[in-house]
UniProtKB/TrEMBL annotation:
This is Aminopeptidase N. Residues 454-559 form the Peptidase M1 alanyl aminopeptidase Ig-like fold domain. It comes from Thalassobaculum fulvum. The keyword Transmembrane does not apply. Its EC number is 3.4.11.2.
Amino acid sequence: MDRAAHETSPQPVRLQDYAPPPHLIDSVELTVELGDDWTKVTAILSGRRNPAAGSGPAPIVLDGQDQQLQAVTLDGRRLAESEYQVGAEKLTLPAVDGPFELMIEGRIRPQDNTALEGLYRSGGLYCTQCEAEGFRRITYYPDRPDVMAVFTVRIEADKERFPVLLANGNCVETGELPFGRHFAVWHDPFRKPAYLFAMVAGDLGCVEDSYVTRSGREVTLRIYVDPGNEGRTGHAMESLKRSMRWDEEVYGFEYDLDVFMIVAVSAFNMGAMENKGLNIFNDKFILADPDTATDGDFQRIEGIVAHEYFHNWTGNRITCRDWFQLSLKEGLTVFRDQEFSADMHDRGVKRVSDVRLLRTVQFPEDAGPTAHPVRPDTYIEINNFYTVTVYEKGSEVVRMIHTLLGPDGFRKGMDLYVERHDGQAVTCDDFVAAMEDATGVDLSRFRLWYSQAGTPTVTARWQHDPATRRLDLTLSQATPSTPGQPTKQPMPIPLRTALIGRNGAPLPLRLDGEPDGGGATERVLVLDEAATTVSFVDVPPGAVPSLLRGFSAPVKLDAAWSEEDLAFLAGADDDPFGRWEALQSLSTRALLAMVGALRAGKPAVLDQRVVEAFRASLADDRLEPAFLSELLALPGESLLGQALDVWHVDEVHAARAEARRVIGETLFDGWSALYERLSAAEPAGGADLSTAAMGRRALANAALAYMVASGREEGIRLAVAQARPDGTMTRVMGALVALNDLERPERDAALAAFHDRWQNDPLVLDKWFALKAGSARTDTLDQVKGLLEHPGFSIRIPNRVRALIGGFTAGNPVRFHAADGSGYDFLAEQVLALDAINPQVAARMTQPLVRWRKFDAGRGKAMTDALRRIIHSPTLSKDVYEIASKALA
Ligand code: TRP
Ligand code: ZN
């Protein structure tokens, strides 16, 4: 294995080493004096020995990073320097037995903090990001989630430049100070771990609204943004109110403080953060209007606002005992936000897009060198574990519990979970135990879903005997080994199952041995062994099984459907997911056959059955436009790549482009009629944000893209017209995406016009960066390199990095994986540059290199060379070290 240039490799933290904290903190009084050179932080901690961690004197050990300690006072006595030890990441104080009061004085430089963890300054704004371990960069503290305290925070700053001073909870005092300074004191009555601490200071505009809870309490809602952006907060505010109502209706969860605040900041490592009463957001997930945000942006904003709000109960009131339990709050909260969005819009469409994300990003993670369980058991840097596995697969695990218990059972489980654990820091196991105890359902084997990594494959074979009218369905499961887990046990897998009759209607189901099936047309079969056979009786000939309906488990399904079965299900399955899945499978088979042909030096010809299935779907006017647009989307290149033993990037790209051309050309009249009909329904201004209107726009854009793909001039003409930058963003982006790969002056002109119109709006400019970086044109890498010098680009702003660099490395497989290795060299260089500034983002950017085993030998070698170059950097962060070393292991 390759060794880093590290003196000693960073050491992993292990779940099995968990021990309760020796000391608890009951209250924190924090004073933060913001200054241009230094920020002074004084913390008064009232603590005591933790009865759950033994008795007798124990030294107080606090976490701390990147700060200058100035003084320590214990129970009123200032300690001499000889009485404590300051290490690189720990402060060790004398042993204490009983209650204590500790005062820590230190100073920090937020203006130099480019990692965007702890307290940092971005432009004229001070803000914090403390999850997971950022609070230790603000003051010395037992920075772990099982230490929960009541916080009172006093902020002092220059009044003119920082008129707005915010922290968690309620503002209890404000006042003037000498030298043009002022202060505010905030008190949060709820005990919380340090990772939920937040404060903000700056010159911000504020939009205020209010919400009356179910029990009649009035809550003030405030969204803070850079002055001038107030007009772009309406959608976030409405989303917040809808989330608050939904959580009351579905779970009985009411908001618990008098004020709920959101602050939008432009330099932010991730999407948003659920700090108690003071959510901090990446501005990209707050600011929206129809001119600058697409319908997709609007929907993401709604989902993320809901996600952070929902954390108030699932995360804040009940938090995690340790970071291995991260999915306790994240998996559950993603499940809740997915259900919220499904209720607000179209359930089938939401399910399809969630499954697409899971398959496109989580399945590869689960099959690669960084695979880990939903509850990891070891990590080097916890920031690397905010993953699609912990979040999205974690949500699927909660969803399976929901499926097994039913909606009422699940709600009973949630009620018991809150009744038992409100105010506590708990484990995934506590959650499962509450679900079991509330319903009597045994989930002991189900717990494997938390501890076992890897995506199971479920194999389904069936046989129908016309004489006895029995259909025997044989199911088996296998999970491939993953790093550190060579062998796997069978897990309980809920499979929602139906049989679709020849006439297209689902059949009433009866299992062998049952007196009658009660007329139900769907059953949840639980495959809880390695293999089993279930028999349905009274099954007429020609019935086709509809399996894994609603994607009832995060598995790969290998089912014995013929192409005819798939074409049939694509038109007849009463489960929307099943219908979409059937067409996806049919298309995938056809595309993989085309890849095979190209590899063999033969022309790639699209299976006519795909075209016919598309034609039939296009003609089915019972389908909602949004759903139809999902149905008509071919599987993406990375999904196709994964389905191959070796991801042949060029052939996959060529096959998919050819399939799109054929579908565009053969069905051109259908696309064109659809496009005209939908465009006529679009009101001028295009500000209708109803689910139906968004669906119509999605479908119109899909039709337009197929017309362009056909190669006919008419498609290009329509797209050029729709791309004019005075249109609404959904339409403009739809047109630009359709044109983006073309080697034509019209494409360049459309992008240039967009740039000229939006170059001073950073969030819109990001769309342009991503388009430039995502084009399949051969000059793309040169373009991207040139754009690193664009005045609108900055390596310090993660959104810019993700748009331009990520748009190329993660969003453009055919160019990133250029056979000459130029894409890999470029990424290695950028990761190293970024690592010196922001290790958390640098580690994420390294991801496109880790699955090098999926590629041919030449590419694999070039990718590992790039990883070696990274890992040999003498100053590498442990964030990037962990990812690169696992990739090379
Ligand atoms: N807890 C946040 C969420 O899922 C995400 C988060 C974790 C985060 N660490 C972060 C956000 C660091 C920004 C920066 O809602
Ligand atoms: Zn979250």
